[in-house]
Every structure is written in structure tokens, then in C-alpha cells.
Amino acid sequence: MLSCNTSASGHSTFLLTGFPGLEASHHWVSIPINLVCVVSILGNSVILFLIRTDPVLQEPMYVFLSMLAASDLGLCASTFPTMVRLFWLGARELPFDLCAAQMFFIHAFTYVESGVLLAMAFDRFIAIRDPLHYATTLTHSAMAKVGTAILVRAVLLNLPGPILLRRLLFPQISILSHCYCLHCDLVGLACSDTQINSLVGLVSILLSLCLDSCLIMLSYTLILRTVLGIASPGERLKALNTCVSHLCIVLIFYLPKLGLSVLHRVEKHSYPALAVLMANLHFLVPPFMNPIVYCVKSRQIRQGLLKRFQRKRVDVS
């Protein structure tokens, strides 16, 4: 924050922050970040296309995977434009309305992704606990209702944030901590009372990320108990192997957030460039890694990709 020479929120300007101390090298630093974004968009688009067009990939697990890919694409679309503006065009200024809109979509897609990961954990539990009724339990109608509930929750939990921010006073020019807008960052820059905003933000996190992570851990506890009750060691290994991909993306989603939280509380001011790098990675890594994990671990997706390439080769011939 520069000073508390306040203005109404709608007239405030926010300045994006790149990598402190590396401003002269932003073009070079941004190359790997931009490559990650491009690969994320291509990878998740391919996953969506395969699941949409391949009849073999219409099982509940892959339908939930398509929801995950869609949320990853939304997250890329929410963060990528301001990164390009900052790193390649040097444009730091962002008006309040655009900043609040970006904040809403970033948090909403993050909550959607968290909800989909919970739904996928429930899917794995049903598949292992009651495989005979798996198809009748997770019907297309049930999955549509789950997807709608996840989307509605994300919207309802994030809608109060931008609305309540409009009642706050901000400096005419405020410096953000990242190259995108986050709720905690904007609340910290306000010059007026932010108790209600902080409380709403806390409740939003508790009812989304915290609740989902606890329920995911509960699901895996039940899965482990079910697997340990299987007599055959081979069947145990086979059952656990179906959870490996999901467990990997759960760790990829939550561990960077945990690392960023620890860094902000311990050494944020000592290593500002590292804090910014971690803040970028915790949004960029999950969309980048999720398609890779499922392409490596899922035989059906690999076969779907192989069929597409073979069909293209035949068409060319």
C-alpha cells in the first residue's frame, strides 16, 4: 500500500507485482510460466475432447475428470491474461472492477476444483466398497446433480466477496502482492474496517477447501479400511492402484497451497521473489500436472490418445 489517501473502491487502481528484483528479466522469467500455461490449456483441452468423443470414457471417474479439466481451463483463463499483460507488455495497472472480477473467478474455479476432487474421492470409495452397484449409484443424473451442486456452492461462497469489497475505501493506487487479484490481498490493502470481509473470507475457506480436504481424508480412511478387509493381496493392490492417480492430483492441489501458506507466515519478506514464485506455481501446477498424471496412469486415456493418432495417420495416408 502506498498511502491511505483514500478513494471509493470503483476509482481505485491496483498495480500487479511480478518478481521483485527481476523486473529487467521479466521476459525471460515469464517464458517457462507461459509454456506451463500453454501446455495446461492444450492438455486439459485434449482430456475434455477425448472424454467427450470416446464412448469408452463415459464412466463416472472420467466424467468427473472432465469436470476437473474444465475447472483447470477456467483457472488458466482467469490468471493467464494478467500474467501476459504484466510480463510481456509491462502493464501493471488494473481497475477495481477487473480486479474484483478476476478475484471472483480465481476463487470460484479453485473451489470447483476442490469440490470435484471430493466427488472423485467419493467415486473411488463407491467403486471399491460396492463395485456391483457402482454404475447404478453414480448415474449420469446423479453426476449432473453433483456437478451442479459444486458449481452453485462455488458461486454462492464467492459472490459476497466482490460485493462487500465495494463498501471499502482503498488508496488511489495500491500495490498487489501477486500478478493477479486475491481476496486476502485486497482486504489487506483496504483503509477501512475489514472485519466483515475477513469473516466472510474465513467462512468461505472453511466451507470449501477445509471441509473438502477433511472429507477427502475421511474417504481415504474408509477406502483403506475396505481394502484391508480384502483377503487377496493381489486384489488389494489392484484396488489401491485405482486410487493412485486421484491421490496424486489431491497432493498436487493441496501441497502447494500449504507451502505458500507456510511461506507467507515465515519468510515472505525475506524472500519476496520466492513467495511470488510459489504463489504463481500453486495456481499453475495443478492444471499443468493433472492431464500428465492421468495420461501416465490411465490406460483408457492412453488408448484413446493412441486411437486418435492412428486415425489421423490413416486419414493422412
TrEMBL record:
Main location: membrane
Keyword terms of this UniProt record: Cell membrane, G-protein coupled receptor, Membrane, Olfaction, Receptor, Sensory transduction, Transducer, Transmembrane, Transmembrane helix
GO biological process: cellular response to lipid
TM ranges: 31-51, 63-88, 100-122, 134-156, 199-224, 236-255, 275-296
Assigned GO CC terms: plasma membrane
InterPro entries referenced in this protein's UniProt entry, alphabetically: GPCR_Rhodpsn, GPCR_Rhodpsn_7TM, Olfact_rcpt, OR51/52/56-like
SUPFAM superfamilies listed in its UniProt record: Family A G protein-coupled receptor-like
Membrane topology classification: Multi-pass membrane protein
Location in or out of the cell: Cell membrane; Membrane
PANTHER family for the chain: OLFACTORY RECEPTOR (PTHR26450:SF100), OLFACTORY RECEPTOR 56B1-RELATED (PTHR26450)
Protein name: Olfactory receptor
High-level lineage: Eukaryota, Metazoa, Chordata, Craniata, Vertebrata
Gene it is expressed from: LOC103273722
